[in-house]
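dumping the sequnces here before i forget
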Amino acid sequence: MLEFKNVTAGYGGKTALRIDSLSLPAGQITAVIGVNGSGKSTLLKTAVGIVPHRGEIRIDDTDVSALSCKARARRIAYLPQTLTAPDMDAYTLVSHGRYARLGRSKTLSAADRDSIEAAMRLTGTWEMRDKFLKRLSGGERQSVYLAMAIAQDTQMLLLDEPDTYLDVPHQLKIHTILRQLADDGKGIVTVSHDIAKSFSQSDRICILSQGKAAACDTPAVLSTDDRLYAALGVRVAKTNGNTLYDYALTL
Amino acid sequence: MPATSSTAKINKFLLLGIAALLLFLILSVSVGGSGVTATQAIKVLFGAPDAQNVKLIVFSVRLPRALGAVFCGSALAVSGLLLQAALDNSLASPGIMGVNHGAGLLALVASAILPFSFAGRTLFAFVGAILAALGVFLISKKAGVSRTSLILSGVAVSGMLTAMINLLIFLKPALVTDRVAFSLGSLSSVTFSQLVIVCPVVIAGILCAFLLAGGVDLFALGDETAQGLGLHTARHRIFTVLCASVLAAAAVSVCGLISFVGLIVPNMVRMVSKHTKSALLLCSVWGGGFLLFCDFASRLLVYPYEMPVGILLSLFGGPFFIYMLMKRRRRL
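..and the predicted 3d for all of it:
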């Protein structure tokens, strides 16, 4: 579990995040939603030390500030919103997921190779392991990056808009993988702009508003009260079951 | 981890590089304008008794020069590879980024203050290289860290440092025995006493580069992704640039402002290997071999005279830089 207590964080002296208390549990998919500039990405970046913070961020009772970069990366994986297409093949990229776990020799052990293969098979990218990233489609590349994060073998995975630019089949494929990871006990935190999809595919929803955690609850509860409307000016309602998602936006 | 096919390719290029290096090492020691023949030189090299003057020419002139080319070429190529990776810019090199000029300027200052101390000159060169690298980095950061701003900052800093070097030489011409040789780079006056100081630094620098290689690979993914993977990007980048600066400074203190080795060799090597560790290995071998070849060619082209190797390198390097620019433009 990742917990935030009295956390403030920001850029260049400007506070972008002010969280009194927030828990992101293991074994569930938590979607962080909010308007642009509400602090969604900052929340994830703060957890992995990209944005400096004050206050307490704990993972399983360990203060992340007390962890080295590598120790933190062994517990929390993070994928930013913008991913590059470096000049390397898919296997090499996924192997970088083991960076924080490499021994002194800095070479991949048999266990590392097993983790890489398992992550690539889970994401369906094993067959494209020798292909260069520049030759892959956006969806394939996103899946390879996801495999890299999975290969980190962490308790928590923080994913900033993991499927925003993907077509629907790829979005569904990524959701299936995330659900499987959550069922295996990993904590998945996604940042998304798609409210209906977030309500339909997540176990918990955290609404951020002006850097604060406005609400954090199950989709069922949040769909029936006014907290979503207060933060985003929209409501969601359960669909009749004949649609792709269980929830739809209403005004 | 490289796939098997690319590992085989890397091994092939490595063996080819070692063979070329040894060939040019023997050729470099065998050929010169002093009248000592190739047969005499090779015999002396392998311990045969020969006239004192032959030994003197081979061991005091040709061999230090050839070894100087090997070590300086390796240092510059590895330095270029590190800078390109740390700054995620294939146009970066110690020559273009002002690192060589920073080293050169302070090496000249050291020559003025401590005229007979090569160690002092080398130390000052290190400081100059590091200051120039930090200067470029800070300016580009202020101007917004983009690939273009980084290169432009490097060009601006190089320009300023070149002006200062020229001013210093203008005011104190005795600081350099051959102005062209210093400004363009030459291996004609390398001595064993210089190599004794510089070679351990180059070897240590290359070893450090290997230690940094794992993290250097992650720079290509972008800072945020790299940090998510457990890399302290700011610290690792500083160490990488420091390592690159020390290597470039070591080379500059021996052979002057040699340019383009740190641009051409890493870019050629990256066509074969995408992994920093194997690319470092190839750069170490091919960098030395390339500078050795260029030095040998610059001696042959105007035989029995010789021209500074920097002239030939600039003739090669200028078009290569333009080619790289065009290649990038096509990609955009």
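Chain A touches chain B at residues 45, 48-50, 69-74, 76-80, 82-84, 86-89, 91-93, 95-97, 99-100, 102, 106-108, 113, 130, 145, 148-149, 152, 158 (CB under 8 Å).
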